[in-house]
Design a protein that fits this description.
alpha/beta; Rossmann fold; six-stranded parallel sheet; five-stranded parallel sheet; 15 strands; about 20% strand
């Protein structure tokens, strides 16, 4: 008898300084290993985006954060695709030379990787992204002209037939120098991540199609003390390649009302077997929704963040592990139908309830 596919969600919240996954695609190795022990791995751009570096994981699903929240709540399903037609949306605030770099990156993805990309659209006004820092140190941001973003996205969808949207917004150069240095040295928060999430959330919420963001930044001088975890962002003039690769196979969102035309490969929240998240970052909408379902929640102690939201005060039952290596073992045991406690040297006797 064939068992249904084992499905795992890997979440590393954006902009909270996660020790693993808080930098330039440094959670990709975690995703690659997890994909070996589960049949379907659902994760989000923060995990799989590595600037000029990326990795095609055939059984991984690239799902934007707002879409992941809607999926976890059961409102939206995921429909796997072979290839999305990607619309490229550029901020009017990007200077001509920097714009050219991004257009050449898109052409390179078409010629070298065979991706399908529509003609590009430039917003009718500069998006005016501003960066913010919360008291905890987490990053977030605002967009000065969200309507311009949505108008450009609508043109790509309705006129160019885009099935996914790659947004490139000009980010400010006057970022906190100390924060940037800390990030480049592997000991700070990604100062861009929170604002990036705001941009992609807005597009996904409005149009219900995959979206991811790539910041446009002026080139920085080489950093001698660069952390390997941040190094992927120093390899070129744009972070666009990983976004285009991720969106090319990002699953389409299907709304609850469309379930009458469901396909065998469609994925819904009630099919999720396990979710893995940093032990101090358990307050996300997706995890709160999943905690109400019959799925195993695994919290990773070693992946420290700037926020302190453990599962216990929220009434979330979880298995806490020290590392992602240990989490892989728990997933393998769960998939095999083995209680992880049976793998330990001491097992308490059964008692009367």
């Amino acid at each position: 008898m064939n068992q249904r596919p084992y499905t795992t969600i890997l979440i590393v919240p954006t902009g909270v300084g996660a020790a693993i996954g808080g930098y330039a695609g440094d959670a990709i190795p975690v995703a690659k290993v997890l994909a070996q022990v589960c049949d379907r791995l659902i994760t989000h751009p923060n995990v799989l985006n590595g600037a000029s570096l990326y990795w095609n994981i055939p059984n991984a699903f690239y799902v934007e954060g707002y879409g992941l929240d809607k999926f976890a709540s059961g409102c939206w399903g995921l429909r796997p695709v072979r290839n999305n037609k990607i619309g490229l949306l550029l901020d009017q605030g990007i200077e001509p030379e920097l714009q050219l770099r991004h257009l050449q990156a898109a052409d390179a993805a078409r010629a070298t990787l065979g991706l399908t990309i529509t003609d590009y659209v430039i917003t009718d006004a500069a998006l005016n992204v501003e960066l913010r820092t919360a008291p905890s140190g987490a990053s977030w941001g605002t967009i000065g002209n969200p309507d311009s973003l949505l108008r450009a996205a609508e043109i790509l969808i309705k006129k160019a037939g885009a099935e996914a949207i790659a947004v490139v917004a000009r980010f400010p150069d006057d970022m906190d120098e100390k924060a940037v240095q800390n990030y480049r040295q592997g000991k700070g928060v990604d100062p861009l991540a929170g604002a990036e999430a705001v941009i992609s959330h807005l597009v996904v919420r409005t149009f219900q199609i995959p979206c991811a963001h790539s910041p446009a930044l002026a080139a920085a001088p080489p950093e001698p003390n660069l952390s390997p975890r941040s190094a992927a962002e120093e390899l070129g003039y744009t972070f666009l390649p990983c976004v285009l690769v991720g969106l090319s196979r990002a699953p389409q969102f299907i709304l609850e009302k469309e379930t009458v035309s469901s396909l065998p490969d469609d994925i819904w929240a009630n099919q999720v077997d396990s979710v893995i998240i940093p032990a101090t970052a358990c307050g996300s909408s997706a995890l709160l929704s999943l905690s109400q379902r019959q799925c195993q929640i695994i919290t990773v102690k070693e992946n420290k963040t700037l926020i302190q939201v453990p599962p216990e005060p929220l009434g979330i039952k979880s298995i806490q592990v020290n590392s992602y290596l240990e989490a892989v073992g728990v997933i393998a045991a769960d998939k095999a139908g083995i209680n992880p406690s049976a793998l330990r040297p001491q097992l308490s006797s059964i008692v009367r309830s």
